[in-house]
Specification:
8-stranded mixed β-sheet; alpha/beta
């Protein structure tokens, strides 16, 4: 039996205009191009893909930091609690949006960039409480939050530069939990940290999820972290979800060629594991308006031919970028496993 979806994303699109020197729109960057996802309550949903595939734009659209071009984000009763005029995120008033954002905490990729270097830790962690007018027992609440993430009350009167990277990320997590959110959005929370510290942060996140029954949206391009943390997983490529499945199913039975190439790139100790190279350059997501019918080229480019020639006879499997540009509809592969394949 599947859990109830806490957020449902339906055909979400976000196109950014590209202007020429006179300020006229000449093209669109399709950062999100028709994304459908259901995020289940109490689970960890992973979003994986290379830089520029639309992961962070999806997160920003979910928080309505950027307005979607079209599509909808539907919030469950668990988030709205009957207090909003509707359950569509794009139709919330500014007051409702402010209340909705209390339910979502965000942990960013770079902890130093996310913390104000001139503020004491006690002020950083209590900032959400002050903004949302929850200033009763602030001191006790800050101490409790710091203890939850493995820091002591003696840390309150220090500045961010006095901490290590892992400790700074713990402070960011403490601040994200200040308003007792239902959902935490984790945007590459361990990519700026040492490997040993990564493990501590991931274990801390698992403990906090169990303790507070949190739902995580986990954005990363580190597949070993994703495999460890996530219950379900969506693979993104150029603004589209190309495959979605439960983590175990996706790792054991990848269907889309891009997913197979990503999984083959994860470091492991198997000497005879097949490696699949992705040849060619990442295509541009820009669509020019005056030739709006032109699709991304699916013919092999000269660059790809040269790269194929260079690895010929070396027994290396490969896929070429241009072959990924042909978009197929999402097809059901198995129970709850979908992929864009022929």
């Amino acid at each position: 039996m599947s859990n109830k979806a806490v957020i449902s994303i339906k055909d979400l699109k976000k196109h950014f205009p590209v202007k020429n020197v006179w300020g006229t729109d000449i093209a669109l960057v399709k950062a999100l191009d028709g994304v459908d996802l259901k995020i289940e309550s109490g689970k960890t949903f992973g979003i994986v893909g290379e830089s520029g595939c639309g992961k962070t734009t999806l997160m920003r659209t979910l928080l309505r930091l950027v307005e979607p071009t079209s599509g909808s984000v539907v919030l469950s009763e668990e988030l709205t609690r009957g207090q909003f005029s509707c359950n569509n995120l794009e139709d919330l008033t500014s007051d409702e949006l402010r209340r909705f954002r209390r339910q979502i905490g965000v942990v960013f990729q770079d902890p130093m960039g996310a913390l104000n270097p001139r503020m004491l830790i006690k002020d950083i962690v209590s900032e959400p409480l002050v903004i949302h007018g929850k200033t009763d027992n602030t001191r006790e609440r800050v101490i409790e939050l710091l203890k939850n993430v493995g820091l002591g009350e003696e840390h309150r009167y220090r500045y961010p530069h006095e901490f290590s990277g892992g400790q700074r990320q713990r402070i960011v997590i403490a601040r994200a939990l200040a308003l007792e959110p239902k959902i935490l959005v984790l945007d590459e929370p361990t990519s700026a940290l040492d490997v040993s510290v990564q493990a501590q942060i991931l274990n801390l996140l698992n403990d906090l999820q169990r303790k507070y029954d949190l739902t995580y949206i986990f954005i990363s391009h580190d597949l070993s972290v994703i495999e460890y943390m996530c219950d379900r997983l969506a693979v993104m490529y150029l603004g589209k979800v190309v495959e979605e499945a439960d983590t175990e199913e996706l790792f054991s039975n990848p269907q889309h060629p891009y997913t197979k190439a990503l999984l083959s790139a994860t470091p492991n100790f198997e000497k005879d594991k097949e490696k699949i190279m992705i040849l060619g350059d990442v295509p541009s997501p820009i669509t020019y308006l005056d030739e709006s019918e032109v699709k991304l080229a699916t013919e092999m480019t000269d660059q790809e031919r040269l790269e194929i020639k260079a690895i010929e006879g070396k027994g290396i499997d490969y896929i070429v970028r241009s072959s990924l540009n042909e978009v197929f509809p999402l097809k059901k592969i198995a129970n709850e496993h979908y992929a864009r394949v022929k």
